[in-house]
Queue: 2 jobs
Job 1
Amino acid sequence: MADATLQIHHEAGLHARPLSKFVKLVKQYDADIQVWNLTKDKGPAPGNSPLKLMLLAISKGNEMRIETAGEQAQEALSALVALVENNFEEVPTDLG
């Protein structure tokens, strides 16, 4: 089992495009992935369920916990941490 706690910096939080990218990445690994919104004390929700992840209401500035277990737990966690830390591979719109 592996886990990480991250702060969300994306303007939309874990919604729409960021959520889609997150779930798509989760589905690439043979691991059980659970997610919590620590700020709002919600969770866990399965990382492969867009609807249940949306119910966590993870917004910009919230702390999110990701816990992974299974054969590819560490690889999955590393990839998800990188995705979140890289702002879901999106360039901020307020560059000025």
Job 2
Amino acid sequence: MAKKILKCQNCGTYTMKGKCPDCKGKAVNIIPAKFSPEDKYGKYRRAGKQKDLKDKGLL
């Protein structure tokens, strides 16, 4: 079984425990969630990204 690698939200230290050994902050999973073609909020996410790109002049 593979062990999960976590990253501290405060200091950025990588760990395998739920709390950071350095600053005692919360550690979160660094692997992104799986993509779902049935994403009910995908339309809004894509519209927001397109708006950001237009605002930056990249689109």
